[in-house]
Design brief:
The protein is an alpha+beta fold and 145 residues long. 32% of the residues lie in helices and 35% in strands.
């Protein structure tokens, strides 16, 4: 029987877009509150604040890693480790997310590279966050270590 689990985050923003700032809080886990700013979205060197794109990248990398590790285990080749990075591109002029580049490196005993690549690609399609982001171009580079 399907069961729905709801995770909650909240954001409080003060001021206009460019000079304003805010915080986003991980309500469900209570793991913390993070500072937000336009500068974090518009300048690659911004430190100390995060952006929706960085948070989306964290969610996508986590989801993909879990999906991939599960599919590898179902293939009787459970991973020793799975390390995923998600680079989320945001076009300021167009005001939109233009792509996500997933990069995964995994250590797995007893798997051929062709099977590794096939399962890595299948995991990209099966990952719930990837499914939620079907309007965005998602690429994958998978490396077997």
């Amino acid at each position: 029987m399907p069961r729905t689990v709801t995770s909650t985050a909240s954001t409080a923003w003060k001021g206009d877009l460019i000079s304003g700032s805010g915080t986003t809080t991980l309500e469900t886990s209570k793991l913390g509150t993070l500072d937000l700013s336009w500068k974090a979205r518009a300048e690659e060197s911004a430190q100390g604040t995060t952006s929706p794109e960085e948070l989306l990248g964290a969610a996508h990398a986590a989801c993909y890693s879990m999906q991939f590790s599960n599919m590898l285990a179902e293939n009787d080749t459970p991973p020793t480790s799975v390390d995923t990075t998600a680079d989320v591109s945001f076009n300021i002029g167009e005001g939109g997310i233009t792509g996500i580049a997933l990069s995964v490196t995994a250590s797995i005993d007893g798997i051929e590279d062709a099977d590794f690549q096939r399962i890595a690609d299948e995991a990209k399609s099966a990952c719930p966050v990837s499914k939620a982001l079907t309007g965005v171009d998602i690429t994958l580079t998978a490396t077997l270590s």
